[in-house]
Amino acid sequence: MTNPAALRQEILRLTREYSRQVHGGFRPAADPERNPWQEGTTIPYAGRVFTEDEVEAAVSSTLDFWLTLGKEGEAFQQELAAFLGVRHSLLVNSGSSANLIAISALTSPKLPAARRIKPGDEVITVAAGFPTTVAPIVQVGAVPVFIDADPITGNASCEQLEAAYSPGKTKAVMMAHALGNPFDLATTLAFCRKYNLWLVEDNCDALGCSYSMPRELAESLSFSEHSPGHNEDPDRVVRWTGTWDDLSTQSFYPPHHLTMGEGGAVNIVRDQKLKVIAESFRDWGRDCWCPSGIDNTCNKRFGWQLGELPAGYDHKYTYSHLGYNLKPLDPQAAIGRVQLRRLPQFIEARKQNWETLRRGLAAHEDVLEFALPTHATGWDPDRGFSWDDTGCRTDCSWFGFKIAVKPTAPFSRTELAQELDHHKIGNRMLFGGNLLRQPAFVQLRQDRPEALRVMGEMTGSDEIMNSTLFLGTFPGLTQAMLNQEIKVIADFLRVQTESCSVASSMGSGLH
Fold first, then answer.
1. CATH superfamily of 343-496
2. What integer pLDDT is reported at residue 296 of this predicted model?
């Protein structure tokens, strides 16, 4: 009979060999074993980046056949929390589910009544972005209050926060860091502190981004410590996005900074009570906090009396919330653990890829508008970014390279997108654009006008919707792929400019 341990080792050896032979095109761009990109083949805007290590981890976990969230999940949760420097990270099955769990947790009757989000209460959010940052607000019975977005950063126009506030109704702010560009955390945190509001950071596109502010300002907002991995600076506080206040969320869908296939997480920054509540909503709404397969960690499994249940009713089948079942699988967590070890290199690759594209397209600022990090006032190829006088800074682990077509350009955003698509260059809109113009939200306003509130005309969000697209920055992009993207755009702009010049000359000759 074959020794099971030796058989397992042989299976994993063959797994690694298979992955090397079959998945060479998915290795990091900097990996010398990466298959070279062939001109004429697709350049995706994002995708899985992995080696045989991830494949082995998935197969090894599957051989154990525990399947449901277990030891790999627990280890990943601890490792992600340690990387970020938060109290807990709670794995779920997607970033959208993470947003749903985060906002649901703030509806719990276990929270102080004055802070609990109840039906009809308001949550301030931003109009431009991904729908599942906003949909959970509606799904829990709260009212999203939309502020506009800045077309340059893609982030919320935080100067509108005060106008959006409604005494006695506003309970939270929930916004995303757009395309890996942190929103104005200093202004948002000051606003939340002033009115005792919850802050939920949708960090799904921004894992590995950091935000810093002068120490005096940080301490006035009750922050004095750096996130792990940041050098000590006596004059500044530097923290990862997703670690600045109450709750944050992550996505591990393949385009994101690391992947588990599907998957996400809720980060509990400081308050242990929020961890217990979020876990309850994730796990069917149960009151018991015992992990799967483990009983009676409270030593009073049959000693509770909750609701109108009889005394001694099994705590494992006592439900304090109207919850869900949103857990991922343990093999996914095994993949995520390997990916997490790659995260520092992935972060740097995204920064470098953004810089390569920005330098390569710098000559086209007459027709293209490029993103700036929040608090930046300009970019120069020699000096980099210039900054405003707030003292706050952002360091972006870019999810994408945002381009807007200026109104004076002789072509539209759609024409540029079609040209990129013709050359098999992946590109995307800034997700839903102005979400208020999406069919679901138009219908919501028609059916229940009171279900949302809008602060003004949303001109910035409309501009993003009409003129913006983004290219990829993910760590699977090689230099050859980036060069091709730059060339295709430059060639298109040249043809468009020449065509415009010819048309102008012909028009002039008619007079």
1. Aspartate Aminotransferase, domain 1 (3.90.1150.10)
2. 85
